[in-house]
Amino acid sequence: MGAWCWWKHGVVYQIYPRSFMDASGDGVGDLEGIRRRLGHLSWLGVDAIWLSPCFPSPMADFGYDVSDYCDIDPLFGSLEDFDRLLRDAHARGIRVILDWVPNHTSDRHPWFLESRGGRDAPRRSWYVWRDPRPDGGPPNNWVSVFGGSAWEWDEATGQYYLHSFLREQPDLDWRCPEVEAAMHDVLRFWLDRGVDGFRIDVVHRIAKDPELRDNPPAPGGGPGYGGQLHIHDENHPDVHALLRRIRKLIDAYPERMTVGEVYIMDPAEVARYYGRGDELHLAFNFSFLRSPFEAAAFRREVERFEALLPEGAWPDVVLSNHDVPRHASRYDHPELGEPRARLAAALLLTLRGTPFLYYGEEIGMRNQAIAEDRMQDPLARTLHPALCRDGERTPMPWTSGPGAGFTTGDPWLPVGEPPPGGPVDRQRRDPTSLLHLYRRLLALRRRWPCLHAGSYRTLEAPEGVFAYERRAGGQRAVVALNFLDVPAEVELPVGSIAEGLSTRPGCPDPPAGGHHRLDAAEGVVLVEATARGAPSAP
Ligand code: NOJ
Fold first, then answer.
1. Which domains does the chain have, with CATH numbers?
2. Contact indicator for 45, 11 with CB cutoff of 8 Å
3. Using a 6 Å CB cutoff, which residues line ligand 1?
């Protein structure tokens, strides 16, 4: 598929398989459903899809509790369905990234069943088993991200096992060489089948303090995960050696990649996961997930990450995923909800870095309110209903009417209210829709190397406006985004503008350069080009 470095310059679309498209009619999305909707993804113009886990799983954490890493859960189809999806995606030039969950398995995984069989079971050392403290309590003070102690007592063998998440998700012990070898085999299994890369779940957790020392309290203390400084249960320095070996394995296959979920609040630590170009290809930068809708906040985060990245490392841009409320909801506003979603699209697709687009954001999906008695996410039970992640995982509305074109059955989560612009089919018919704006931005980005490969520089702009330029060869793109609820005056380039757009619906392209009045929550993108800097063929 050519020398273009797809994972740097392309756009990745995250699919939550349960909610994208249900071909079988059982109310849960599946691989055949995704295959049937590849036309949507080609039309939109994305370069890759990342599938949240679709492996056999008891679904205690909806697939993030894997009971067999080398198969497909029957709910989603079969290995043959996967191969068909992979083949058809590749035929359309769309790469496929799988979600690899190395920190923990399901408690029903045969490895764990064997491990818990007895203290001298052959796979005992594959998981983290420890004796109780003299008072019978858990071996240390570590807490689960999902609430309560991170240790579960096993009556039969008289020891505790470690689980960073649910008790149904026991942590593997990556200090055991057989675990590392077995998990490497999993990667090879899928690479040999032709997958293009892996999103790596909570990769900063695979190495922990070998002495399992207590975490110190965080300033302010308190119970639960937030009450501790996580210096021993995650982000142990030994993680980097593990990553270098993973990278070596991946790089033995041409054009493959990894993107790691490094859920650490300190971006300096996240940046270290790139190593010297010998660890992760990409580390998720989640700083936008916490940013308020303010120009200064986005500018600060972009500049900070750009400054922290090691030489040659490539950033990425994330506004939404399956664990946080959708950004169209986070940025919602009584009158400016849609304009803000449109501005966010321009931001996502013009910053330096690989954009990760979460299914449904291209039509402005909002979080849906889920009644407590219909909540599925275990967090609603183990932590608090307010932390339930179902709202951002609801079925994709393709059409109006019952089932929303997602299912002919009873959907596993309610489809809920369509986004303001309507479902996919309506937005396809409306050239001014958010969906069309995403498509235009994707096409613009693909056509102009300055947008997909260029350097980044912040431009001076009035307060409330975030402006920057992207440069490559003889090309320059200027982006100005007005985060204010009122218009703002900006100076745009007056040179030879080759192409551009405004996020305002129905706005003529390109907007004129020079002194320009941006509407409330309007963004513009202008591409200047010299003769040298002609657009590239897609
Ligand atoms: C991070 C995943 O994104 C989340 O959905 C999951 O619950 C945890 N890891 C545990 O695997």
1. 6-105+176-440 (3.20.20.80), 110-162 (3.90.400.10), 455-528 (2.60.40.1180)
2. yes
3. 61, 64, 101, 165, 201-202, 261, 322-323
